[in-house]
Structure formats: structure tokens, C-alpha cells
Specification:
Elements (H helix, E strand, L loop, with lengths): L2 H20 L4 H19 L12 H11 L8 E6 L5 E7 L10 E4 L13 H4 L5 E4 L16 H19 L4 E6 L1 H12 L4 E7 L19 H10 L6 H5 L4 H8 L2 H5 L8 H10 L5 H8 L23 E6 L7 H9 L5 E6 L6 H4 L1 H13 L3
Parallel strand pairs: 3-4, 3-5, 5-6, 6-7, 7-8
Antiparallel strand pairs: 1-2, 2-4
Helix pairs in contact: 1-2, 3-11, 5-6, 5-12, 9-11
Length: 376
């Protein structure tokens, strides 16, 4: 969206809201409310501006990540790997001399995630082969550039950054393990760069099925819900977390107490919720790209199942779901049906939800190591 379009849209919304408020007969109240709404709107249109009242910063994010990684005993390195346009991808590398000749695993986190969420996995996985975990472009500590609003171009920006990262690090081929959005991007990358991928491990992947219009005649969606959906559709998914300012850390702890339980073997305090908070209230970038790639009700605008025939048949796929996850696993069956001449393995982890790798880390790590044994 160009600058003139932003201002014209903002001006139109300004007039509409102000007119609606003024008809109440309370002009002073209307003025005060508009001031608040106006600041919120500007916040959306100017994604590089981070409200000073959000208790976060890049250094706080880095400190929160360090606490997440503090229990890892294995040696590893941390660095910003340069890609194109001056961007950097924040990378953790676990690569001992004993396993350096094996095919590495590259971990791609999901929407709103970061390298710290692999804290219960990287040590076990790195005992058998090199492991790289990176913050996707626009997320975590990686550079947060302006993405295209076109879903095809935004997806390409993610994919090209991964390829540039691979070339810079010097990895010839890899096993890509992607969770959620990371699973979607792993397949997109493998379609374009098949020679670089030896195996795909998709963990609760997002964006595979096509939009399903299920309208129940006896249970129509209320008009007010449709109106709210239309009202908030222009905003980024995590805008509300920024909007509450200093209440954000408490909000994360209150709404997602399960994260503390997932990492209870490592931390007894709010380390995890603090990390998640600082990950998701930085200037929106990858978040904005994800919004551009997402249609109504969270469906992908460019479903991966429509393009799966472009994936080279020699690339094996392992798909991991949690038995207690709310994510529909029917896409896995569709993938297996479509790739009759390829290896497709579907794995269900008992007792795990969407964050399989954190809910059942021991079982998850063992299963991934078993999958990777077949690669070398």
C-alpha cells in the first residue's frame, strides 16, 4: 500500500468515525474518543512505530531469549546471518565435530514463535546431527522488513530469505522441520529448491487445506459478529496485545498459562510467557506478511494442497500431529493420497496439543531422530 493510499484511507475512516460519534450529541466525548481511535489507527498504518508504553525493546527480547536457552548444556553459537537487502536472520547453530558430516536439521518456527521455543528439543536432536534454528524473516530477533501485501510475493520473500541463509551458512542439503507457518514455508521452499531438501518434517502445518464454506442454515452467524469481524479485519493479528500496553505481560500469563506448564521441567517462573510477550509486541513485519497470506477465518489464500503436485516425488514427508490438537489433520491424509509414489508418514503424538514439540518433548525428539535415521 502506497503512502497516499494510507492517508486517504485514514482520512476516510477519520470522517466516518468522527461523524458517527458526533451524532450522539456529545462533541467533547466524541473528540476524546476519536483521539484514542486516531492513535490506534495511526499505529496500524505506521507499523515501524512501536508505542512507548509497551514495556519491550530489542534488548529485552534478547534477554528473554537468553533465559529460555539458559538450561541448554550443549555448546552452540548465536549469530545474525546476513541475507539480501541488509536483512539478517538470527540463528542458533549446534554442530559438534562428531556429527558435522551428517545432514543437518533446520528448524522453522510457527507464527508468533522464535528460536527459544525449541529449548527442549535442540540439545537432544543435536546429539545425532547438526541443528540450526532460525528466527524467520520478520519474526523474533531477525530483521523486520516491510513485506509485500501480495500473498504470492510475501511468501516468496520468506522463501528467498531461507535460501539466501542456506547459501551463506554453507549448507548443501538439509532436513527441514517446520511447525505451523514454518511447515507451510518448508514445503514452499522445497518446491522451488528441491535439490536442497532431503526430508520434510511438517509439525501441525498451517495453510494446506482449501477454504471450506460451511454455512449451517439453522445456525446463521449473527450480524453483530460479522460486523466485528469486518471492523477488525484491517488490523494485524497481534495488534490487541500491543494495544493493552503495560497490561500485555499479564495478559499473556492469564490467557496462555499452558505455556508455563509445557516448559515446567525447565522453568518454574514466568520465563516462557515473558519471552512470548517480547516476541510478539515488537514492530509487526512477518505478522503483517502472514496477514496478507491469510484469508477469512485463518485459511491460506494460496493453499498448499493446490500446489503439492509441484513438489518433487523423491522428497519424503513426515507429518506430525498432536492427538489433543484442535488443528484438523485431514490434510495429512490428503497429502498421502496425492503422493502415492512418494514416502509419506503420518505420526500422531499422544497427549500433545498444537505445540507438539513442547507438550511431549521426549517422545517428539525420539520420533524425529528415528525419522532422520533414514536420511543418512
Amino acid at each position: 500500500m502506497d503512502q497516499n493510499s494510507k492517508f486517504s484511507s485514514e482520512g476516510l475512516l477519520h470522517r466516518i468515525v468522527k461523524r458517527a460519534l458526533s451524532v450522539t450529541g456529545l462533541p467533547s466525548l466524541a473528540s476524546g474518543i476519536w483521539s484514542y481511535v486516531d492513535n490506534t489507527i495511526r499505529w496500524y498504518w505506521i507499523p515501524d512505530w512501536l508505542p512507548s508504553w509497551c514495556p519491550t525493546s530489542q534488548s529485552q527480547l534478547m534477554a528473554a531469549e537468553d533465559r529460555m536457552l539458559s538450561c541448554i548444556r550443549s555448546a552452540f553459537t548465536k549469530e545474525f546471518v546476513p541475507v539480501s537487502c541488509g536483512n539478517m536472520l538470527w540463528t542458533l547453530a549446534f554442530c559438534s565435530d562428531v556429527v558435522k558430516d551428517k545432514t543437518p536439521i533446520v528448524l522453522l518456527h510457527g507464527f508468533g514463535g522464535g528460536v527459544g521455543l525449541w529449548a527442549q528439543n535442540v540439545e537432544a536432536l543435536s546429539q545425532d546431527r547438526p541443528v540450526y534454528a532460525l528466527d524467520l524473516l520478520g519474526f523474533g530477533q531477525s530483521t523486520r522488513p516491510v513485506f509485500s501485501t501480495d500473498p504470492l510475493e510475501a511468501e516468496a520473500q520468506f522463501v528467498e530469505s531461507i535460501e539466501q541463509w542456506r547459501a551463506k551458512v554453507g549448507v548443501e542439503s538439509m532436513i527441514i522441520l517446520g511447525h505451523n507457518l514454518g511447515g507451510f514455508l518448508a514445503v514452499s521452499y522445497a518446491i522451488k529448491y528441491p535439490a536442497r531438501v532431503k526430508h520434510l518434517v511438517l509439525v501441525e502445518p498451517w495453510g494446506f487445506p482449501e477454504v471450506q464454506e460451511t454455512v449451517e442454515a439453522d445456525r446463521p452467524i449473527p450480524v453483530w459478529i460479522k460486523a466485528l469481524g469486518a471492523m477488525f479485519s484491517p488490523f494485524n493479528p497481534l495488534a490487541g496485545l500491543r494495544l493493552v500496553g503495560p497490561l500485555g505481560p499479564t495478559l499473556v500469563q492469564t490467557l496462555r498459562p499452558d505455556f508455563k506448564k509445557k516448559f515446567s521441567s525447565m522453568f518454574s517462573d514466568n520465563t516462557v510467557s515473558e519471552y512470548i510477550y517480547h516476541l510478539n509486541v515488537q514492530s509487526p513485519s512477518g505478522e503483517t506478511a502472514f496477514k496478507s497470506m491469510t484469508g477469512s477465518c485463518g485459511w491460506a489464500k494460496r493453499p498448499m494442497l493446490q500446489r503439492l503436485d509441484q513438489l518433487h516425488p523423491d522428497i519424503p514427508i513426515s507429518i506430525i500431529y498432536g492427538s489433543r490438537s484442535s488443528i484438523d489433520s485431514t490434510s495429512a491424509a490428503s497429502i498421502k493420497e496425492m503422493r502415492t509414489n512418494s514416502h509419506v508418514e503420518i505420526i500422531t503424538m499422544r497427549g500433545a496439543g498444537h505445540y507438539v514439540f513442547a507438550d511431549q518433548p521426549y517422545d517428539f525428539n525420539n520420533k524425529v531422530l528415528q525419522v532422520c535415521e533414514k536420511v543418512d
